[in-house]
Amino acid sequence: MSELVLVVLGAVLCFFGVVSVRAGVLVAGFGAGWLLAEAFHASTGTALLVSACGAGLALAGMFLMAAFVFFVGGACVGAVVGAKVFVLADSSGGDDRTSWVLAAVFVPTVAVLGGLLANRFRVRFLRWGTALAGAALLLSGLGRLLDGDADLLWRPESGGAAVLFALAWVALTLAGHRAQSVRSHDADDDRTART
To answer: Are residues 137 and 24 in contact, defined by beta-carbon separation less than 8 angstroms?
Structure first.
C-alpha cells in the first residue's frame, strides 16, 4: 500500500500541483510526512498518521500565514525534495544517530530554501517545485512497488543507478512541468475570457 500511496501522491503533485495551491500543499505535506516515515521504517499506520499530520500542518500553516502562502507552498515541496535527496544521500544505511541529525538539518534547510524561492518567483517556481517533488514521490513509489531492478528508483546503490535515477527524475519533472504549464495557461485563458 505504501508504494501505491507514493505513486498516486507523486502523480497528483507532478502533473496537477500548481492547479490548486491548497491541494498542492496538502499533497506535498502528506508526501513529505510519508517519505520521512518510510525513511525511518515506520509501520503503515504510523506513516499514515505522520503523513496526515504533515498535510494538516501544511494546510493550517498555509491558512495562518495567508500572506506567506507561496513561502509555505514552496517549503512543502522543498521538504519533499529534501526528504528524497536525504534518502539518496543516506542510502548506504549509515549510523542511525547520524541519519537523524542529517534529516533534522537537511530537510528543513531545503524546505526553507524552497519557501524563499517560491515567495520570490511565485507560480513559476511552484510549477517547477511541484513537478520536481511529485516526480520524486512517483519514482519512489514505483521503486517500492516494482521490486528488483526498479529498486534503484527507491534507493540507488551504485553510481550508475544514481545516474539512471537522476535522468528519470529530470525527465518526469520536465513532463510534469509541461503538463502543469499547459493546464495553467488554459486556466489563464479562461480567466481572461471571463473578464
So the answer is: no
The count of domains in the chain is 1
pLDDT per position as a tens digit, 148-187? 767 778 778 777 888 888 899 999 999 999 999 987 665 5
Q: What is the DSSP string of 68-120?
A: GHHHHHHHHHHHHHHHHHHHHHTTT---HHHHHHHHHHHHHHHHHHHHHHHHH
- Domain of 49, in residue numbers: 2-194
Chain center to CA of 95:
25
pLDDT of residue 193: 38
Output Rg (C-alpha) for the chain, integer angstroms: 16
Among residues 87, 91, 68, the alpha carbon closest in space to that of 79 is found at 87
Q: 155 and 87 in contact (C-beta within 8 Å)?
A: yes
- State the Cα–Cα distance between residues 78 and 115, nearest whole angstrom: 7
Measured from the Cβ of residue 57, the count of other Cβ atoms closer than 10 Å reads 15
- pLDDT tens digits along 88-147: 777 665 566 667 777 888 889 999 999 999 988 988 898 999 999 999 999 988 888 887
